[in-house]
Amino acid sequence: MQELEQEHNAQRQGLQEKLEQNMQQSQTVETELKIRIQEQENEIRSLTDNRVSYN
User: Quick check: pTM over 0.90?
Assistant: First the structure.
C-alpha cells in the first residue's frame, strides 16, 4: 500500500513540475506576443505619422 502511495506521489510531483513548466512557457509566449504587438503598433503609428505628414 505504501509503495502505491509513493508511486502516486511521484506521479503527482511529475505532473506538478510539468504544469509549472507549461505555465512558465505560457508566460514567455505571452510576453513575446505583447512585445510583437507593441512593435507592430509602433510600426503602424510610424506609417500613419508618415502618411499624415505627406498630406
Answer: no
**Among candidate residues 3, 5, 23, 26, the one with its CA nearest the CA of residue 15:** 23
Regions in the chain scoring below 70 on pLDDT: 54-55
Cα 17 to Cα 27: distance, rounded to the nearest angstrom:
15
Q: Rounded to the nearest 5 degrees, what angle is found at the Cα of 41, between the Cα atoms of 38 and 46?
A: 125
SS (H, E, C) 1-55: CHHHHHHHHHHHHHHHHHHHHHHHHHHHHHHHHHHHHHHHHHHHHHHHHHHHHHC
